[in-house]
Amino acid sequence: MAEINYETLSDQTVPGSEVGDTITIAAGGNDLIYGFQGDDSINAIGENDTIYGGQGDDTLTAQNNNSVVYGNLGDDTLNAYGGGSSVFGGQGNDSIYASGGNDLVFGGLGNDTIQGSADSVIYGNQGDDLITAPGTGNDVLYGGQGNDTITASDDAVYGTLGSDNVIYGNLGDDLLTAGADSTVYGGQGDDTLSATGNSVLVGGYGDDSISATGGTNLIYGNQGDDSISAAGGASTVYGGQGNDSVFASGGANLIYGNKGDDSISALGGDNTVFGGQGNDSVFASGGTSLVYGNKGDDSIYAAGGENTVYGGQGNDLIYGVDGGDLVYGNKGDDAIHVSGGASTVFGGQGDDVVVSSGAGDVVYGNRGNDVLSASGADATVYGGQGDDTLTATGTNDVLVGGLGNDLFQINGADTTSTIADFVTGNDSISFAGGDAGTAANFTAAQVSGGADDAAAVAAALFGSNTDLDYVFVAGGSDGYLFTDGGNSEVTLTGDNSITGVSYNDIVGGTTVA
User: Fold this and answer.
1) Gene3D superfamilies from the entry (predicted)?
2) pLDDT per residue over 366-395, tens digit each?
3) How far apart are CA 2 and CA 423, in angstroms?
4) CA distances from 351 to 332, 371, 410, 468 (A)
5) Within 13 Å and on the Cβ side, how many CA atoms surround 511?
6) In Å, what is the CA distance from 482 to each residue of 311, 408, 451, 473, 494?
7) Are 84 and 68 in contact (CB under 8 A)?
8) How far are the Cα atoms of 179, 209, 288, 399, 465 from residue 273, in angstroms, in the given order?
């Protein structure tokens, strides 16, 4: 082993030997140093020095600014302490430390470990590289080929300078971690990307895992079946192609599922969600959300606020929970269930099924042969066009069949409902689920043909349910009261008269003709 020491030297070329050399250049600068063969140890203290390690597992150190270090062959340890240095690992599994700032680092071939500093540009190149940029500057990091792990710290925590890192994973299954105000590109492969606050994350190709915490982030899943998480801020998320899983919480997030069968959860804020193409599953809770299912057979669950939901194209399944929701089924044969009260539902085109279980709900079937049910009190149901089935099981409900041959069903105990537009010859009434205390009210003006037809309609009801107490039909100044023929008790007050062929008990001030 040769040992070479220079106390004062500048603008010189220093060759090593074929064995492992120890070379120290203590002063001067602008020197060119060759290690050649063997495991060399070279220490250059001056500025603007250039070091070639050559073959062997070398340890090369450049102490001052603007140095250039080449590891070449072997598993080298390369140190650049001065600023503005360039370091090239070459072949082998190299360990590179560049701490001066404004450095340019190439890992080269092999599985390299690289640590940069402020305002550095680092290329991992080939191999499974471990790259760290802990400084306070604006770093640009390229993973290159291989399964790389890249970490850039959030230096904005410690000072006024932002980290502003730009990280490229490129090929391979990369682990990329950045601080605030960073831009991260996964590239090809199944990458894991994370950043904190006001960052841009781009998954690229592959099935990526992407997470952003805090701040206003912009996330692109791009191709592949991606898993995306955005917490604690107001993020914008594009799932891209593939069957993506998106979870957003804690802020007013904007989410686009785009293509594929996506699963989207938006919690804790006033979120806006576009399912996009595909059969999407959307869960929105904790705020006042706006959800568009768009194309495909979507499943949408909206809770926790007064939400607005558009099913879009396809046969959608929609749940509106906690009340005050506005739901549009739009195209397709949709199944819609609202609860909590004071919701409004438009079935739209298609043969829709709508179940309303809250008080004060308003349901519009619109086009198609719809099945519409209201079990809460004071609900209003409009069938619209088509042969609809309208069912009331609550109290004080109003049923409006609209166009078509509609079926009105009055079910449940102590149910009193109003049928607003019964048309004889077209519409039907069923009390199949009725019980004692069930009543239906209609007026002659609501029945095609006047009072005589109103009486005929009411008379036709009997025989279908012996538990029905009575049906009352008002026809002008006269009324028609029909009981079930059982042991019913009818009480009338005022100046009344009753015409009938059979009765059991009449109580009150009445005249029987």
Assistant:
1) Serralysin-like metalloprotease, C-terminal
2) 999 999 999 999 999 999 999 999 999 988
3) 111
4) 7, 8, 21, 31
5) 5
6) 45, 19, 14, 8, 19
7) no
8) 27, 20, 12, 33, 48
